Amino acid sequence: MKWFIKCLKNYATFRGRARRKEFWMFTLVYMLILFASVLLLSLVSPELLSDDQTAYGTSSTDADLGIGGGILTFLLTIFYISMILPSLAVTVRRLHDTGKSGWWYFIIFIPFVGWIILTIFLILDSEPNENKYGPNPKLE
After folding, report:
1. What pLDDT, on a 0 to 100 scale, did the predictor assign at position 62?
2. Which range of residues forms the domain containing residue 127?
């Protein structure tokens, strides 16, 4: 959790380096929050996940969320929009740690293979010494 909070404190810091542990722990906590929020939303509004047709012939996607589901959906939307910048920043800092420019992030837009290449870059070990993006965070 401390790595997640550290990334939130550096939410718009695109300079410097982020070690593997910082990036992957942030990603893990973020995915756990995503899973928990979908689970919570399904408990509050179970009709969202139902494939049943209603008596009037409308699909379950037309179902009313109710006040609780609507508020929860609004809060989760705000949360996920607010997490775009911190997740982008930690990804760029992680790329810096491997010696690559943050512009490599845009390789994700290459269909089919872009996300694979980016994932490989994010898995690579840190450059052992200081690089043009700063000192090795493992040594600090």
Report:
1. 46
2. 2-139
The CA distance from 87 to 71, in Å, is: 24
CB-CB contact of 60 with 42 (8 Å): no
Number of domains in the chain: 1
Q: What is the pLDDT of residue 97?
A: 94
Q: What is the CA radius of gyration of the chain?
A: 19
Q: How far is CA 71 from the centre of its chain?
A: 22
pLDDT digits (tens, 9 = 90+) for 47-99: 665 655 555 555 545 455 666 677 888 888 899 999 999 999 999 999 999 99
Q: For residue 113, what are its two tokens?
A: 């293979």
- Please check whether residue 72 is in contact with residue 44, taking contact to mean a CB–CB distance below 8 angstroms: yes
Q: What is the longest distance spanned by two Cα atoms in the chain?
A: 66
